[in-house]
Every structure is written in structure tokens, then in C-alpha cells.
Amino acid sequence: MSGPSSLRTGLLAGTLAYTLWGFLPFYFIVLRGISPIEIFTDRILFAVPFGLLVILARSQWGEVVKGLRSPKVVLWLLASALAIAGNWILYIVAVQEGRVFEVSLGYYINPLVYVLVGVVVMGERLRRLQILAVLLAGIGVTILTVYGGRFPLFGLILAVTFTFYGYSRKRVAIGAMPGLFIETLLLSPLALGLLIWLVASTDTGLEAGLSGDFGLLTLLMLAGPITVTPLLFFAIAARRLTLSTIGFLQFIGPTLAFGIGLLDGEPFTPAYQICFAFIWLGVALFIGDALQHRAQRPSPVPRAVAASLSTDP
């Protein structure tokens, strides 16, 4: 599709997708006191039926069946499912422990991690601004670790797991929604096993979700739509927008998460201030390099950069 109407639709859908992802920490803050594992299992189990409704509404069931019949697709989606499962549980734990700044940091540096993967795995060469952007991010993390006395483990693992997730998804040709549906389907046995363990345990807090509190139960059930809906908007945007436009929109998420961290009362220490200053400068250089590279053409966009801008979050 092309034209002004398609572009407006893509921009609206992309903005909605990254805005919803940006507000995601607020959802997990509201659910503080509930076991992160319980929230994680709800996110998977409620995403399956909601995802199925979306698949049927978009007439994508044939793509799901085709994917399930391919051992290669299933194996790569299993790898991506395990990566995103680790990402999800760590994300929930980080927010519930009041480390939203690390979540924001992780997704700010995620595109830079993709660039490094392009060098190590795909043999790509970094341009000067890309090198400087990566160095600035590294300096920021080092300052936070040494000066602030806090190594941003959660943030870095979030960036690495999400990068591996994106790399795995790029290894197979399957749409955003069908791929997510198969991933949640593959994770369902794990989620069910954890749910059984939670039910059998007396100190996990599962009873909080089943205590008759309708409001709390509704919030937990929303984990499915909250997981699927942003990806649906992203899929719409990805068909209508250029990679560079999507790349600029992706910074909406960590920016909103950063604001939520401030509202949540997380201490914005001098070490964090300096760290984010370096991160933001690195991001600005990354965007500037993308604009410059886009203007120059016809040199192709490096595969790792393209993946960082079009991965299904």
C-alpha cells in the first residue's frame, strides 16, 4: 500500500504500538504484590486465545498451519519463544523491584546491541558514527557501574535477550501475528507447568488472582490483550512505513518508560543522570547516522540495522 492515507495509518499504528509498549511498566507496577511468575504465566496463557481471535479475524490461520508444519520454522520460533520468555519474566521482575530506569536503558541501547551483532555474527563493518554511538553507550554503562556502584544487569540482559529474539525471528519468513501466536503456543506447556506449581505452592501469591477480587482478576486477564494488541498495531505499521521511520518511533517506548520510572519515585541519581546523558547522545548519533545514510544511498542498509528497526517487539 502507498499514498498519504496509508502513511497516516502507518504512523498512527506505529505510534500506538510503541506508546503501548512504553506504558507497559505502569501495568506491572499496578500488579506489584502479585508473583512475577503468576503474571508471566497469565501473559502467555491469555495471549493464546486472544491471539487466536486476531489470527482468525486477519485470515492468517493458513500461515500458522504452514509454520507449524515446517520443522525449521518451529525450531527457530522455539528459540525466539525461549528468548522472549526470559525477556518477559526479567522485565516484570525489574519493574516490580523498582528498576524501571534499567528497563528504559535496556531498550535505548537495544539498537546498538543489534549493530554489534551485525559485526560479530554477520561480518558487517561499523560506520564512524555507529562506532561512536556504541562507545558512548559503553561509557555510560561503565560510569553507572563504577561511579554509581550498580551494574545495570537487568537492562543489559533485556537488550541481549531481545536482540537474540529479533535475530531468531529474522531467520524464518513468518508474519508478526502468526509468529507470536506460535511462540505463545510453544510456551503454553511451560506456563501450564508453572501454573500447576503455583497452585500447589502456598507462598506464591497465586491465591491473590483467584481470591474473588474481580478487579484484580480482570487486570491479570488483560495480560493477553496487552501482549498481543501492540504487536497488531506494529504489524500494520511495518507494512506502511520505512525502516528508518519505524526506527525513530521505537524510541517512544523507552522514553515513556523512563518517565514512568520518574513518576514511580525511582531515585534518579547523579550516576544515572550521567549514564543516560551518554546513552541519549549515543542514540542521537545513531539516528543522525541513519538519516545521513538514508540521504546518501544507494548503499544498502546493513542487515543488523534493518533488523533492529523492524523486529517484532
UniProtKB/TrEMBL annotation:
Q: Does the keyword Transmembrane helix apply?
A: yes
InterPro entries in the record: EamA_dom, EmrE-like, RarD
What sections of the protein cross the membrane?
Answer: 12-31, 43-61, 73-93, 105-122, 129-147, 153-168, 180-202, 214-236, 243-263, 269-288
| A Pfam family assignment | EamA
Q: Name one GO cellular component term.
A: plasma membrane
Sorted UniProt keywords: Cell membrane, Membrane, Transmembrane, Transmembrane helix, Transport
Please state where this protein is localized: Cell membrane
Task: Please list the residue ranges annotated as the EamA domain.
Answer: 9-145
Give the top-rank taxon of the lineage listed in the UniProt record for this protein. Bacteria
The yes or no answer to whether the keyword ATP-binding is present is no
* Topological relation to the membrane, as annotated: Multi-pass membrane protein
Q: Which family does it belong to?
A: Belongs to the EamA transporter family.
- What is the protein's name according to its record? RarD protein
- Provenance organism: Parvularcula bermudensis (strain ATCC BAA-594 / HTCC2503 / KCTC 12087)
